[in-house]
Amino acid sequence: MSALLLVLSSSLFVLAAFGQAPELQETADTQALLASLPPRVGVMGEVQITLDEVIASVLANNQNIQSAELARRVARLDLIAARAAYDSTFTLDTRYLREVIPVSSSIATGVEGRITSAEGAIIPGFSGLIPGTGASYQTTFSSIRRTTDNQFTLLNPQYPTALTFNLIFPLLRGFRFDQTRLNIEVSRSNVDLSTSQLRQTVTDTVTAAVQAYWELYFARRDVIIRARAVDAARRQVESNERMVAQGILAPIGVVEAKAQVATFEQTLFASLATLTRAENQLKTLMLGDRRSPLWRVALLPVTPPPVDPPTVNIEDAVTTAIAERPELRQVEISADINRYQTRLAREQTRPQLDFLATYTTAGLAGTAVLQQANPFLFSTQILFARVNELSALAGLAPLPPLPDVTAEDIPSLLVGGYGQSLGNLLRQEFPTVQLGLRFSFPIRNRAAEANLSASVLEGRRIETQRQQVEQQIQAEVRNYVEDMMAARRRLQAARAGSTYAREQYESEQRQFRAGLSTVFLVLQRQTEYFLALSQEVRAGVDLAVAIENYRRATAQTLPFYGIRILP
């Protein structure tokens, strides 16, 4: 798995095989004895497996770990998406307009009582948010080509251009903190949260796999013990039958021994079922595909459990757990998110006061149109002509001609093509500036006040939760330290108990052969001996499980096995 670095070394373990009784050893006789047992369903052959191999397989294949890693990737993508709020948006507006309008005014004149105009426009623009301010901006550039047959038009075609900047800058609400910055901070915290959850998932899964490995170890050894018990009981039957044939023992002694065989066989078959369940539990944790070939073989654990718990200072252990446990880190991240939400809620209680600014620079150019006559003075031309005729008859000088607008009267900076229009725009020949303030504030603003109060209360709840988690962690550490110490003492007692039970069993057999004991006592000692062996193995596995629980409680599982969560 790409997010995990696994460094495992056998030197990390302090291991020793516990129990010296031959019933616990994987000898050739034991292998032959196990081969004589009824085959388990769907199991063909066996493969040896170490604890290192189990952990490596869990990290590579466990679906819970993979799901947690995928969740972390999703959180990272959510952070990218939240930061994308500051990405600029490009817009492009293109249009073509052709219109024919009827003329109903003496001012607007066209051809045959109508004015026809056409316009093509390209208007690109950028808009977005300014990081860290809550301000927004918008920039547009309009580029138009317009033609018309309106006789009042002095430029045809003409090329109007404009470059506009708009800025909205919050002065109160939204200046220090806003929804966009909240989304970014929450997404960043969620990345940390998903990493902590991945760490917890890896820790819990590895712990469960290690414990499942020890349970499989116990189940395998327990089957060996039960098989040895059945074999010993059968040999006792054969011995009793010989003694009956010699007249030394009553026939009931054979019946008692056979009853012992039946009892031991029941526990053996139950132990085989337990072995299968323990094996399947471990396979479920370490295999990611039900079609894996390992499902069809028996797993033979070869790594013995540790026999010595670590030396513990209870106060140091609690301090380490409080500092390192991912559950507490998750509560802290929740508190961070709540602080961000409280900050935004407090910001929403302030009035809205925005500074508005708009700056526009425009350009215009076109081809000059030569007009025949001033359309405003056309109706007085006849009157001027009549006055001049009368003036001539009276010997007076004629009136001066009415002025007409010509190409020479149009400013030179407006005459030209599209380039001239852009030049006017860039030289800022026609600027426009607009500044203003916009104020708004909800009357009473109860929604913002309620949200702020709810966020503050949520912060108190999280603080209470943190205290609860700390107490739970402390209780777990103390409990598992006690479990380790108790399991260690129990293992020592179980070892002594199995030794004594073996000696009693062997002594009872000698007395029975000497005629000083009974079949009942021999079978009782036999039962006690094999039960003591099983209890010894159980105590050793319980110690290993307690040690693993202690490592998890103090957040030392990953360091102990050399597992590192990569950023």
Describe this structure in words.
- The chain has 567 residues and is of the alpha+beta class.
- The chain folds into 2 domains: 359 residues, Outer membrane efflux proteins (OEP), CATH 1.20.1600.10; 190 residues, no CATH class.
- The chain is 54% helix and 17% strand.
- β4 and β5 form a beta hairpin.
- α3 packs antiparallel against α4 and α4 runs antiparallel to α5.
- It starts with a strand and ends with a strand.
- 28% of the residues are buried.
Write the layout of secondary structure elements.
Layout: E1 4-6, H1 28-35, E2 46-49, H2 51-61, H3 63-83, E3 89-102, E4 114-130, E5 135-148, E6 155-158, E7 161-170, H4 179-245, H5 252-286, E8 298-301, H6 314-324, H7 326-348, E9 352-363, E10 366-368, H8 381-393, H9 418-426, E11 430-440, H10 446-513, H11 519-553, H12 557-560, E12 563-565
Parallel strand pairs: 2-8
Antiparallel strand pairs: 1-12, 3-4, 4-5, 5-7, 6-10, 7-9, 9-11
Helix pairs in contact: 2-4, 3-4, 4-5, 4-7, 4-11, 6-10, 7-10, 10-11
In a few lines, what is going on in this structure?
This protein has helices at 28-35, 51-61, 63-83, 179-245, 252-286, 314-324, 326-348, 381-393, 418-426, 446-513, 519-553, 557-560, and strands spanning 4-6, 46-49, 89-102, 114-130, 135-148, 155-158, 161-170, 298-301, 352-363, 366-368, 430-440, 563-565. It has 567 residues and is α+β, with helices and mostly antiparallel strands. It has two domains: 4-80 and 181-343 and 447-565, Outer membrane efflux proteins (OEP); 86-180 and 352-446, no CATH class.
